[in-house]
Specification:
Elements lengths: L1 E9 L2 E7 L4 E5 L6 H11 L16 E8 L2 H10 L7 E8 L5 E5 L2 E2 L2 H11 E4 L10 H12 L2 H47 L7 H12 L1 H16 L4 H15 L4 H30 L4 H20 L5 H66 L7 E12 L2 E10 L7 E2 H4 L2 H16 L6 E5 L7 H15 L3 E5 L3 H4 L4 E9 L4 E7 L2 H13 L5 H12 L1
Parallel strand pairs: 3-13, 3-14, 8-12, 12-13
Antiparallel strand pairs: 1-2, 1-4, 4-5, 5-6, 6-7, 9-10, 10-11, 14-15
Helix pairs in contact: 4-11, 5-11, 6-10, 7-9, 8-9, 11-13, 13-14, 16-17
């Protein structure tokens, strides 16, 4: 339950603290006194977005703090998941600085706003006046049915299956698009790949071949130079003959000193090197033969490579080979895409089968919950002076959506003999207020929430209907803590606890104040609600009777 709330520097509130208890609490006050400011403060505390208008004093921070008494079994896992130390009393504090930055704490541990929102969804069911406009919306109606049907686990499974189904469909569409794009260019890619495959690219070493072509093109010049070299090396007047003659001369004087013998040895080494060079030159001369046929073949191959380099705007054969590998991968990928498409289609069929199976289970439970809702709403509406009201829950199948395979319409009529129509079209404002309260009564025992806050759910009703609304809120308060902002004296009289919100006008500013009313003060407040600022004796007597009833 909500134990207390403290508000500082929020809207028209300078400082305010409310202490709550179990049962039914009502908050009353004149129109414009600031009753809904408290609701806004609680919403801010539980993660709603703050704006610059929240500050009473723009130079001070806004602080909202509340304490909740928790059930350990229901909340222990939440504390563990969010790395919080378990305490039976949960203190939530939110501070909004004048700069616009905010800080949030749970038991003095900093937390993100997302954690506040998660906690808020488990702590309080807040009904604002805006919520009544939601009654005709599909999502709102399905949430009610799912809460009755206890579809939480099945919906979580369905959501997981639906996401995978959508993601797989997206992947399939991308693959089909890719296949179409590749098919449009596959013939051209295959032609280019085959052209490179048939070419000399990768089959010859271009650098070596270029050198070979250059050699063959200059074979005559090379041959001439090499033959001249052979003559100079090994001719009758060549280097070899002269070195031999020199060696003989040096050998004659070798016995006159070691330095002469050393010279002879060095000449011998030159003769051996000259002989090796001559042998190499003769070999090269034999190779450097003119071969017009081979030259033509090599020129043709290199010409084809140069043409392909120019065609594909690359610098060398390596880049041509890289292009060829890319095209080959694309051609192989085309075949792989076809296999992937077949596999994805199988996965979609299987996932859709499981999705529809889960959806069918959810739908069946919703149908059963619809019957329960029709019966229980009729019961509660009878107690709110709508004896002839009829509710029908119309479920129809639809293609899978994120929340199942159903569309829903809650149909309503307040009059005997009339055909029920969509509730947002058939119900008046007062009737919608009563239907919403009846829905809250139906859900009170099923939502397992500690507290429910209602903002003028009695809007559009009065008199005996208001009294019955108060009695119904009393019954709901036996299941959970109920806090209602109300303008009806009949509703206020049924509360266990009563707060009054009022404005205090000073010389320089107006403040919203909140006080807890004792029994005599409640008589006065309810009498004023009945007849105005200066209640009559009859109004005071009426207020006393209402509080006794």
């Amino acid at each position: 339950m909500l134990k207390n709330i403290r508000v500082q520097n929020f809207a028209l509130i300078d400082q305010a603290e409310l202490l709550f208890d179990e049962g039914f609490t009502v908050i009353t006050g004149e129109t414009g006194s600031g009753k809904s400011i408290l609701l806004g403060a609680i919403g801010l505390l539980l993660g709603q977005r703050a704006d610059s208008k929240i500050f009473r004093n723009n130079e001070l921070k806004c602080v909202i703090e509340a304490q909740f008494i928790l059930n350990e079994k229901a909340w222990k896992s939440f504390f563990k998941e969010n790395d919080l130390d378990w305490e039976e009393v949960l203190t939530i504090r939110r501070e909004i600085l004048p700069t616009g930055k905010s800080r949030s704490f749970m038991n003095d541990t900093p937390v993100n706003v997302s954690v506040l929102k998660e906690a808020g969804a488990r702590l309080i069911d807040i009904h604002s006046q805006h919520e009544q406009s939601l009654i005709g919306r599909r999502n709102f109606q399905l949430e009610i049915l799912d809460a009755i049907a206890k579809n939480e686990e099945a919906l979580a499974l369905f959501s997981q299956q639906y996401k995978y189904w959508q993601d797989t469909q997206k992947s399939l569409n991308e693959k089909i698009k890719q296949q179409a794009e590749w098919n449009a260019t596959a013939d051209f890619i295959r032609f280019q790949w085959e052209e490179l495959e048939a070419s000399p690219v990768g089959k010859i070493n271009t650098k070596e071949t270029e050198q070979q072509v250059e050699t063959l093109e200059n074979a005559e010049e090379i041959q001439t130079v090499l033959q001249s070299a052979i003559h100079l090396l090994d001719g009758t007047e060549g280097i070899a003959t002269r070195l031999h003659s020199l060696l003989q001369q040096l050998q004659k004087i070798g016995r006159y000193g070691s330095e002469y013998a050393s010279l002879a040895d060095r000449i011998k080494a030159l003769m051996i090197e000259a002989k090796d060079i001559t042998s190499d030159v003769e070999g090269l001369a034999d190779q450097a033969q003119s071969n017009p046929q081979l030259l033509a073949e090599l020129q043709e191959k290199m010409g084809e490579i140069y043409r392909l380099q120019q065609k594909h705007r690359v610098q060398d054969g390596d880049e041509l080979l890289a292009l060829k590998d890319t095209w080959q991968s694309q051609l192989e990928g085309l075949g792989n895409v076809e296999d992937e498409i077949v596999q994805l289609e199988k996965e979609i069929q299987e996932t859709e089968k499981q999705l529809l199976k889960t959806g069918a289970l959810i739908s069946q439970r919703r149908k059963e919950a619809g019957t329960v809702l029709e019966t229980e709403l009729a019961h509660w509406l009878q107690q709110l002076s709508m004896e002839h009201a009829k509710i029908q829950v119309a479920l129809t199948s639809c293609p899978p959506k994120a929340d199942g395979c159903d569309d829903v319409q809650i149909l309503f009529t307040a009059n005997k003999g009339m055909t029920p129509q969509a509730i947002q079209q058939a119900a008046s404002g007062g009737e919608i207020s009563r239907v919403m309260l009846a829905l809250k009564a139906v859900m009170a025992s099923r939502q397992n929430l500690p507290a429910m806050i209602l903002d003028e759910i009695d809007q559009g009703v009065s008199g005996d209907v208001g009294l019955k609304m108060g009695q119904l809120l009393q019954k709901c308060a036996s299941q959970m803590q109920v806090i209602a902002i109300s303008h009806l004296p009949q509703v206020a009289s049924k509360a266990n606890h009563h707060f009054k919100v009022y404005k205090e006008h000073g010389d320089e500013r107006t403040l919203t104040k909140v006080i807890s009313l004792d029994h005599p003060q409640r008589i006065q407040e309810i009498a004023e609600m009945l007849s105005g600022k200066t209640p009559t004796a009859a109004a005071i007597a009426n207020a006393q009777e209402l509080l006794k009833a």
